[in-house]
Structure formats: C-alpha cells, structure tokens
Amino acid sequence: MVGDGIPSYPGPDGSVDYRGAGTHHPVTEAVPLVPNPYLHVLRTPHAVPMVLAALIGRLPLSMLGLGSVLLVQAETGSYGLGGAVAAVGAVATAVAGPVIGRLADTHAQRRVLLTVLAVFVTSGVVFLTSVRQDWPLWTVFLSAGAAGASIPPVSSMIRVRWTHLLRGTPRLPTALAMESVVDEFVFIVGPVLVTFLSTTGHTTSGLVTAFTLAAVGGVLFAVQQRTEPPPAEHEHRGGPSAMRIRGLRVLFVVGAAVGAVLGTLEIALVAFADEVDQRSLAGLLIAGLAAGSMASGIGWGAVHWRLPLRHRLVAALLVLSVCTVPLLLVDGYWMMLPLVVVAGIAVSPSLISAFTLAEVLVPRAAVTEAFTWIGTALALGVAVGASLAGKIVDAEGANASVLVATAAAVVAAVVVALGQRLLHVPAEHVADPALAR
Fold first, then answer.
1. Would the pTM count as exceeding 0.85?
2. pLDDT tens digits, one per residue of 46-75
3. Positions of the region Disordered (predicted)?
C-alpha cells in the first residue's frame, strides 16, 4: 500500500500495482470543499461529451420497468402480471450484467457496447409486438428477458471511465458522486416521461421512446474513444471473479436492498396513484423519490467527510429504513408526494458509498466487473421488489406493499453493520488514519 489511500494488489508474478502512486489523497475521503467541485470534474478533457452521451443512454433504465408495467397492465388489467414481466427483465439484467462487465474489461467497452445494443433494440421490438398482438405469454416473458439481459450498461461503463481518467486524484470521489446524482436525475425525468407518454398517447409510446434513447445514447457513448480505458486482456482474462472479494459481497447485498426499495416503490406508487384516481400523476411520485435522492447526492459529494465510508453506509441505510415507514400510512396523493421526497434522501448516499467502496476493494482490472455486480444487485433487487409488490398490491393494496421496501432496507443495514470488518480499509492504506476507525 502507498500513502495515497489507494490499495495496491499483488500481480501473478508478485509485482504490485499501486493504482495511482504518487498522490496523497485517499479515495475513501471526500475531497476538500472547492467553489464548485462538480465543475472541476467536468473540466477533465473530453468529459462533457462523455457525460451527455451517457445521460441519454441511461434514460431507458428508469423507463423500461415502469413502461412495461404500464403497458402490460393496460393490456391485461393486472399489476401482478406487469410486475412479473418487469421482474423477468430485471433478473435477466442481473444474470447478464456481470458477464457483460467482464467482457467490457477484457475486450474494450466500445466493441461490447455496440454488440449488446443491437440485441437490445431487436428484443425490444419483439417485446412490444408480442404484448400488443396478444402473442403467447411465453413470448412476452422471453423477449422481456432478452431485452433485460442486453440493456447497455452505460452507467457502469462511465464510472469505469472516470476511474480510468481520475484514479489517484481527489476528483475521483466527486466524479462518482456526480454519477449517482446523474442517475437520480435520470430517475426524475424517466418515470415522468414514460408515464406521460404511456397514459396520454399510445400505450407503447413510452417504451418506444426508451428504446430509441438507448440506441442513440449508446452509439454516442461508444464513439467517445478518447475517454475509453484500454482493455485489460493480460491482466484480467481468465482471472478470478471480483465476487471472490468478500467486501464486494456485502456491497452486493446493499445494491440488492436498494434495488428492492426502488422496485417496490415503483409498483407501489403507481398503484397508489391509481387507487386515489391520480394515475396520470404516478410518474411524479417516482420523480419525487429521485428528486430527494438527487438533492442528497449533490450535498453528499461536496461535503468534506471525516467519517469512514463503511460507517456512512450503515447510517444511510438506517435512514432509508426509517423514512419508508410513513409511506405505509398515507392515504392522500398530496400527502404522499413530500414523504416520498424525504424517503429518497438516503438512496443516493447509499449507492455513492457502495460504489466508492467497490473501487478501493477490487483490483484495477476488475473495476468494471465490480461496478456491474452492484448494478446487477440493483436489478435483481428491483425484480424481487417489483414482483412481490405487484402481488401484494393485487391482494392487499398499494400501502401494504411498501413493507417490502422497509424490510429490504433493514436487512441491508444489519448486513453492513455485521460486515464492517470486510469493508474496513486498514489505517496504513489511507493518508488519514482517522478514516480507518
């Protein structure tokens, strides 16, 4: 280990990769306050086109699940079936995500992304046709799974690009925080857009827009070759999975729990809006959740933290657990909206802490895979949350389904609290020993 706070890893020949030696800023500590740390990050050469392309390419992530629920529910009248279809897509994302991440590490992002994108668009066309033309149900689930398995992993890939561009500098934690903020912005705009298009126009309009944005954004991101990290063929091909690192397994649980919260609330809030005769405003509730998370993410990335990351993660998950409880009791739309915003404040801090810990826990050659595992956990959690919530909504109503979100957050907080040793960065790995308390 070196005094920059970034861990080293022994190579197969006994050599050590110092991952940014020569700097003096631990990545486990937020950077000191500057007038605008995010603007400082965006001044990185070629960063702005990369960020804009990734923004377009990421919008479908917040549109596909909800769009599928709205489309299937409109065609069949069942939230349970809509949640099941969305869950199949999310499970497929969970299974395929690490594989795609590993391939991107080995064969370069551009090559993998363009191939995946072609499969994604084709699967989307089949899915839309199968639902609208009343094809056998197995074709709906199969095409939803294929589309889920081939969702372009732009969110993970841009985090790897930031790590490649800024490793060993105090700007990296801010860049990762900014990406979580962008994710939240996507989850503000996406649900509102897909709900508006699906409920005021043709029922397929929302999903058609999502697939179009994925195609355009994915291609624009792929051509940003000046920010693309080189493939790590020699270093990573045939090597062990990043999941062999026990700390990453703890972070996988965090990702799954946050995903379960999001998946549950996506179904619960749409159903709640329907129950109170505000179906057209369902997207606004989901946007409110993302708005709360985005606001906290902006502040989180700008604060000069002294508390260790692993402790911050526990605190964020406890807050998330508490803030979901009031959603069980509300019976009015305009009472629900501010409480949803409050519930969102712990989402982004949880994900920022998880991604930042993953970056320092795994070898350089496995960073894409590690980030993709967390993204995979999110997708798996969304699948489980959406499926369970859909069934509870059909049986007991929207409010009762929120219990799934509360339980998921509590479980994650307990797992992280018990797994502190696995997430601990020893004092010799950081410039400030206080961070390793």
1. no
2. 999 999 999 999 888 878 888 888 899 888
3. 1-21
Per the model's pLDDT, the better-predicted residue between 16 and 156 turns out to be 156
Q: What is the CA radius of gyration of the chain?
A: 21
Predicted confidence (pLDDT) per residue in 320-340, tens digit: 999 999 999 999 999 999 999
Residue in this structure with the two tokens 């980030």, named with its chain if needed: 371
H helices then E strands: how many in the chain?
Answer: 19, 2
| 79/311: higher pLDDT | 311
Quote the CA–CA distance of 102 and 260 in Å, as a whole number: 24
160 in Cβ contact with 367 (< 8 Å): yes
Q: What are phi and psi of 170, to 5 degrees?
A: -75, -5
List, in order, residues 6 or more apart from 15 with CB less than 8 Å away. Answer: none
Contact status, residue 93 vs residue 148, Cβ threshold 8 Å: yes
Q: How far apart are CA 407 and CA 30, in angstroms?
A: 30
Could you tell me the domains of the chain?
A: 47-423 (1.20.1250.20)
Q: How far apart are CA 361 and CA 352, in angstroms?
A: 14
Q: Write out the two tokens for 406.
A: 């509360």
Closest CA to 360 of 314, 416, 433, 426: 426
Tokens of 56: 């377009």
- Cα 291 to Cα 181: distance, rounded to the nearest angstrom: 9
- The single-letter DSSP state of residue 45 is T
Q: How far apart are CA 86 and CA 66, in angstroms?
A: 8
If phi > 0 it is left, if psi is from -120 to 50 it is alpha, else beta; for residue 187 that is alpha
* Torsion on CA atoms 93, 98, 101, 103, rounded to nearest 10: -110
Query: Which two three-digit tokens encode residue 396?
Result: 């007991």
Do residues 28 and 5 make contact, with C-beta atoms less than 8 angstroms apart? Answer: yes
**pLDDT tens digits for range 369-408:** 788 788 778 877 877 888 898 889 988 999 999 999 999 9
Q: Measured between alpha carbons, how far is residue 82 from residues 104, 260, 393 in Å?
A: 32, 16, 12
Specify the amino acid at residue 204: T
Name the 3-class secondary structure at 332: coil
Residues 6+ apart with CB under 8 A from 157: 54, 104, 109, 113, 221, 368
Phi and psi dihedrals of 311, rounded to 5?
-75, -40
347-361 and 172-200 are packed helices; what angle lies between their axes, rounded to 10 degrees? Answer: 130
